[in-house]
Every structure is written in structure tokens, then in C-alpha cells.
Amino acid sequence: MLVDTPVSRLLVDWYDVHARTLPWRTPPGAKVRPDPYRVWLSEIMLQQTTVAAVGPYFAKFKGRWPTVEALAAADEAELMAAWAGLGYYARARNLIACAREVARLGGFPATEDGLRALPGIGAYTAAAIAAIAFGERAVVVDANVERVVSRLFAISEPLPGSRPRIRALADTITPDARAGDFAQAMMDLGSAVCTPRNPRCDACPLTSACTAYAQGNPEAYPVKPAKKAKPRRRGIAYWLESEGAVLLVRRPDKGMLGGMRALPGGEWGDPPEAAPPVPATWRHVGTVEHVFTHFALSLDVMAADIPARPVEGEWWPVAAIEEAGLPTLYARAAALGRASSEMLAL
Ligand code: SF4
Predict the structure, then answer these.
(1) Closest to 35 in 3D by CA, of 74, 12, 67, 65
(2) Spacing, Cα 155 to ligand 1 middle (Å)
(3) Cα-to-centroid distance, 109 and ligand 1 (Å)
(4) Which of 56, 70, 139, 316 is the most exposed place for a label (fewest CB within 10 A)?
(5) What are the residue boundaries of the HhH-GPD domain, all occurrences included (predicted)?
(6) Is the dihedral of CA 247, 248, 251, 253 positive or negative?
(7) Is ligand 1 within 6 A of the CB of residue 121?
(8) Is the CB of residue 218 below 6 angstroms from any atom belonging to ligand 1?
(9) Domains of the chain listed by start with CATH number
């Protein structure tokens, strides 16, 4: 006997009316399942990309290579050129490797395990193809489903630790019947109704089953992991002005902001190493706070004006400093140095 669940019934009923019409789909409840080639191609293209962006690429690929066998025989350079613009080129290389393997097997495997063994097909994609193209009951969990399930059950544990629980709970609401329509309904609900911000609960078929809705705080889920405090480094940047110009240097090619123009200053650390470029009466004119991917930097800006230029180097007109191509960090430091010099000149 096929089993459905209250949630799946509500959702599939909603899907019967609201399903998006997409070129790789068949209508809800259709007797004929969609072509696995179309489902696979769309799922690979949709990784990291939107439905709107994929549409023209899908049409181009289907026109040029209408079957998986045609794609298996494609010229690799031509395929890569057709993929250009979709990004993540490893996917395009896997696409052709997968097409060749499917052609060798004589067709797509009809099970989640068989699909998972193909090049470039991960757990989510295997489950999606198994459910949509073959009607197999498979627990399909992507970021949209994670969000919907986290809200339905108000899962308080933060991601990513909550993933096994999300999967287990997604399993409890996945029906045996119409597995493909259920998977696509979850996708549509996550993308159009149960959105990350401002979910449209008033248009959702699952309000009666949704704990986050009952609590009045859907956006609190999924709970994000606490951000780790980034290590902090300190640095010094010297604004040395002379005769209407400021001394700039090039940062070493390797390392942060490699090869870019900057104000002089030494290594960042705690404490920073940075002897001034010349002895002068240096004044502290401010601190720039900047966050890089792996650390936060507090850059103290020191300024001095000297009558003549005692050091060789690139002296850049202060009036044209915006054209020096300074990275944001040093542009902000330069703004502090320049403002301080202008104040002194008043
Ligand atoms: S009721 Fe709101 S929070 Fe709950 S599943 Fe629907 S859209 Fe998401």
C-alpha cells in the first residue's frame, strides 16, 4: 500500500494548482514521467544558478544535443563553449563524462544508488532524479528543503549540525506516492513561498502543520551557526606628504592585496612591524577597521608632512589620489591622512 502523509497531501494538492511550468518538467500527476536526460541536465545546470539563468542554456543544449547519446558524442571544446557563462566548469567536464557513462550503460540507472555512482552526481541530484524521473521514493534535501523542514519542525539546533535531523524529519513527510511531484512541490514552495526572507505564509498550504508559523517566527529558522570571532591583527599605514604628493608603494606580489598600490607600512601582526619611511613628527590620525575572510585588521594611520622629498619612490599627486587604484583598505586610510593634512593647512 502506498503511504502519504498529511504534509505531503497538502503540498501535492497545492502543487496540482501552482506548479511552475518548466521545460524539463511534465505537468503534475502526468501519467508519463519526464525524460531522465532532461531532469539530469536541468539539475546539473541548476546547481548554484537560478531557473531564469538556466532556461536559455537548457534550450541550447536540448537543441544541439537532444539525447544523452548525442551529448556523449559531443566535441568537448564545443560543449565547454556552450556552457560558458554558467560557471563552475568542473560541472561541464563531469557532464560529458556522465553522458558517456550513461551511453555505455545503455540509459540512466533508475535507482538512487545507481545514479549516485555516476560522475558529477551527488546525493541531492541522485535523489532528485530518482524521484522525478523514475518515481522512486527518495528523500530529496537541498537548501530550500532544509529551510522548509527547519521551519515546519522549528528545529532549534543550528546548521550544519542539524542536517541529520533535517534529513530524518524530511523522511517522515516524504510520501510513497507521487514522489517526484512531492520533491518538485518542495522545490517550488521553497523558492516562491517559504523564502529565506519574508516567507509568504499567507500563501502557504502548510500553515496548519508549521511550528515556526505557529510560533510567529519563521525567519528564525534554519538557525545559523554562531559566527566565530576572527583573529585580529594590527597594522600601520604611513601617509607621508610632500610638495602636494604622497608616497605610495607596491605590496609584495604574494600575500594579501598582492601587487597592489598601498601606503607604506610593514607586516601586519600583533604588534605590527613598521618603521616609518623617514624620521618625522608623525601624528596618529585614525584607525581603519577592515575585515578580511580569515582575520580582522585594525590599521593605524600615521601622517606627516615634510618640505622636501627625502626618499625615492612613487610620489602620487594628492589631488588625484582616487585614481591611484588603492584597494578599499588603503583608500580609507588615505582619506584619513588627506583629511588630517587639509585640517592642518587651514
Ligand atoms: S507556514 Fe510559512 S514558515 Fe511555515 S512552511 Fe509555510 S511559508 Fe514556510
Answers:
(1) 67
(2) 13
(3) 35
(4) 56
(5) 45-192
(6) negative
(7) no
(8) yes
(9) 6-220 (1.10.340.30), 232-345 (3.90.79.10)
Q: How many residues does the chain have?
A: 346
Distance CA 261, CA 263 (A): 7
Q: What is the pLDDT along the chain (346 residues), one digit of tens a residue?
A: 455 679 999 999 999 999 999 999 999 988 899 999 999 999 999 987 889 999 999 999 999 999 999 999 999 889 888 898 887 778 888 999 999 999 999 999 999 999 999 999 999 999 999 999 999 999 999 999 999 999 999 999 999 999 999 999 999 999 999 999 999 999 999 999 999 999 999 999 999 999 999 999 999 999 998 888 889 999 999 999 999 999 999 888 887 888 889 999 988 887 777 789 999 999 999 999 999 888 999 999 999 999 888 777 899 999 999 998 888 899 999 999 999 888 877 6
Lookup: cell for 307: 618640505
Distance 8 CA to ligand 1 centre (A): 14
Give catalytic residues, as residue numbers.
43
User: What sign has the CA pseudo-torsion 212, 217, 219, 220?
Assistant: negative
